[in-house]
Amino acid sequence: MSETVKVVVDAMGGDNAPAEPVKAAAAAVEERSDIEVILTGNKDVIEKELEKYTSAPKERIHIVPTTEVIETAEPPVMAIRKKKDSSIVVGLNMVKKQEADAFVSSGSSGAVLVGGQVIVGRSKGVERPPLAPLIPTAEGVSLLVDCGANVDARPSHLVQFAKMGSIYMEHIVGIKNPRVAIVNNGAEEEKGNALVKETFPLLKACKGINFIGSIEARDIPSGYADVIVCEAFVGNVILKLYEGLAATLMSKIKGGMMKNTRSKMGALLIKPALKETLKEFDTTKHGGAPLLGLKGLVVKTHGSASSVEIKNAIFQCVDFKQQQINEKIAEHINEGD
Amino acid sequence: MSETVKVVVDAMGGDNAPAEPVKAAAAAVEERSDIEVILTGNKDVIEKELEKYTSAPKERIHIVPTTEVIETAEPPVMAIRKKKDSSIVVGLNMVKKQEADAFVSSGSSGAVLVGGQVIVGRSKGVERPPLAPLIPTAEGVSLLVDCGANVDARPSHLVQFAKMGSIYMEHIVGIKNPRVAIVNNGAEEEKGNALVKETFPLLKACKGINFIGSIEARDIPSGYADVIVCEAFVGNVILKLYEGLAATLMSKIKGGMMKNTRSKMGALLIKPALKETLKEFDTTKHGGAPLLGLKGLVVKTHGSASSVEIKNAIFQCVDFKQQQINEKIAEHINEGD
Question: Out of A219, A222, A277, whose CB is closest to B256?
Fold first, then answer.
């Protein structure tokens, strides 16, 4: 059996804390024996939640009590600096001190991103650690990198995103020789803004990645590329529009189904098959978004994450550790330029 | 009765030329008596297509023969300069010389955008004419401005986009005091890349527009703002992802409906209601994207435009002319800064 992986889960982060993070912890240790979970947060509250899960092997769930919570609206840099006893700062410090392998939080994105870089620290050679969520496509999933950590990135950052993303897709998702594309406003090589025009030849010349050129946003959902490289502002627009458009379309479709008696009958017949199909297109199914290129692992889950999403993020941490992604990134980050 | 509006239609542009543009011309003059259409392109080919439409009032359809066609793959600046007798250049020159009020093309986006600026020319005071398509939302439509003409725009450009977009939404779509928002990677005022951070206070201080702050991409499909301001690279990503994601989701849903006998029966019952609902979310229903802030009117329709989309674009030109949008833009573009 492989070594136990220790994952800190922020029990106070997200819209559904502490109920969902605690439920995720209980489910994770029950489902897999190679995991220990450490919950950071208010001890009494966590213990009360844990009482619900009588069958979970509690010897693999630990509580590290903390007294502060970083709110989503707080300016992240200040919050990280001031709230030393918050569930986020304490969790990140455990990763830094190698008391844990990974930290998962549904709390303040800004605090997790800033804290990841400032407390856990960048891996040697990594210029900017990107946030890299998996997004669903017609073919499976693609990695969208970067999605929030570094707006106004430079070309060299994007080249590193391509390398780190390729390693992740190959070893975590299991796609051999993953296709890398850069988000562009046209398919032709001469298209692009200043950043893309400067980055394109660097990616083309970069050895060790399978660069297939530009990708127009239209082709992202069809699964045309495995690693989709872009600057964080654009990545954020893609990720958020994905979520917003899917939600609006689904509600339109539900509205159409409820239009009249005939369509309501149809809806009843169709529901199970449709539900199954659309589950494949669920952004929350694939766990959280890792912050790549740190000395430890930090994973951000949605603010609205359910216990299933958080549990999947915990499992993702185990794969990440067992596949030695950080070691591979450190080894390859400066190769092939 | 109002004055007749003269619209040049590029009969050689787009995947479905000349059949769809010619069909659109015939349908437009048949449906409305205040329109004349001038078709630019190969005379013999156009005449042969026109023969199909026996009931159309042909005295309001004219042909201006041209011998060249600009292909989508051609570098636009060179193409505009060299192909003087192309359907695009001849059409744009007619607008420039005020022999026509507007030009509609499904051909090369680059050539139409470059040609619009170089041949027709910018209205006095307009720094960069943006391409502004209407996108469907849960509430109706929003104007996405800019969507392709000017990557790496400056803050002053975005402020002008907001003003021109507001005029368009108020007078063409009929929305009083349209809500203007800037695309951002978070709802808080301190969020953003360098461009957004610099533009935000300018929009806030700008009189004569109803600026409501940042919009996250997640909230675009819900119809949270009427005028959505962004730099063209981001606008292109939003527009293309809208199209791509809607297509992928629809094909997933169709797949789900065909899964088994039960779901197939449901699909039959649901189809009419669903079709009607989804029609509201059709990006092609709203005609083409105007290039705002020119001395005349230039409208770009999808490369794959059907005759219905082109016909709607022709009608849009009539509204644009009758509502004196260009005059209103010229009057207000330097106000309130």
Answer: A277
